[in-house]
Amino acid sequence: MKAMKSLLVTATSILITLSILTTCGSYSDIAEENDPTTPMGENSKTYMRTTTDGSINTVEMVTMQDPVNNRGEIDIVQVDDDTSQMVRNVVMLRSAYEISGGKIILYPLFRYDGDYRQKNPQNNLGATREEYSQGFSTSFDYTDNGGTPPTITIDVFTYTSFPHVLQDVIDLGAVQERADRMMLFTDLSMMHSQIKVKGFGGMAMSQYFGPPSKFKGTRVGTFDLTLSGLSYVTSHFDFDNYSDYEGLSHNGRQTSSTGREGDGTMSDTVYFTAIGNSETVQGGVDFSPIVLTGTVSSSGYYRVTVAGVPWDVPHLTTNPGNPGGISYLDILTADAQAGKLPIPAVQ
Amino acid sequence: MKSSVLLTVVLFLIALTPLAGKADHGFFPVYNVTHLKTTEGDVYNFYSPGLNYTYNSKKKFGFFSSVSVLWPLRSNQNGESYKNSDYYDRKFGLDLMMGAGGKIPTSGRFTFVTSAGAHLNTIRLRGRELYQDFYNLSLGIGLNVQARYAFSKSIDGTIFTSGSWDFIDTIHWENKLKNGLGVTFGLGLTF
B108 vs chain A: nearest CA distance in angstroms? Predict the structure, then answer.
């Protein structure tokens, strides 16, 4: 009887432990890569557009591989802040492209989807990845407008060369607004990296417990993700020359420590190098003063150092009415009115 | 690998209880094939050698349990074959069955033991740096059939086969398990 009890206890313990440790979204494929991204290299170009349309504010980053025979790969990241729903949706589409006869033909390879809103990660799947079947394509009108700053037009949207946008920000000088914008650009990179992690923000992220998992930058570099802890989970994103956008690269570590309901704190510093079309500025974002509620920042501030000067930047929010935070909507509307950053396109 | 060996040792130690004389304890090298089909139509097969411990009550009808620790060395998804060590640095599986069994003695040295019960199967492949982990944890029912030949009063040569049908997925939210089938073959000794 004792042996039976021992077996039952052992089996039950194994079952419970495995269930807790291995909750995941869906079956992964055998030999499935963490990140199917093929780095585009240093010569890839990034363009940016912003739009404010009612309660929805959009930032879109387009990174294009240097074309060979008018072909290459393209990475399109769209961040939508829906201030009425207080949710930030992030979509990344990776496609092969071909430019021909005033058109850009996209052959989608895969896409990532993620969102940022207060949520209990135990009830959420987290970021997802979908791979497209071969043969699907879509095309848009395309024009390389050249000029200063260089712009391209895809469909009805005009995108501005990102190094020129960075230069506009560098030219602001040693003021709070420059630190705010460098924080937003760093946040764009952080969001871009996070949605590459299948399950980010949900229970499916538990599949990354254990040794570091490696992911790739859209242009160059990598980051390692390490998860540890049981009831209180700590995640480390370690960036190594990581770059999703032309002119912006990151080193350092971002850490978050949260309970099972997504409440907790952040820590450590991610450093940035911003290379504008004529100047370079370096700095870092210290996440230590940030408090997380339901997986997103709810209070505190970022300690942003730009060219050696420290600034406190309020936590990010999708709610412009939140006096404790800053939002993309506030920043970009102000920039558009001031004639800085890309002019919002008509939708 | 280290944790798998440790678990195997722990399970074997359970057998060495003061009650050891009141039960049959079987030890087997085994070969297991696990087949999984998901709701989105993906089909996986895992091929694993392993070690098994089987517990049977000495009574004509009584408690039965069987634990196989598996090393999934090869796999196959949708017709494409993989050598798991190329993509995973840890490969571990557990096939567990618990229930009741009955003995069917014959006039000679042969005894047949048939058992049925609840079944659990888990496979964990921990991805190398650039690869995703693979997890399965499914529950269902199973059947185990042993044919024993008595070498002596206390030692039987035993051949067994077990089959299982899993239909409960405990860890996936999407593209869940539709059904899982498992077959295990073992040849060893029962004390």
Answer: 30
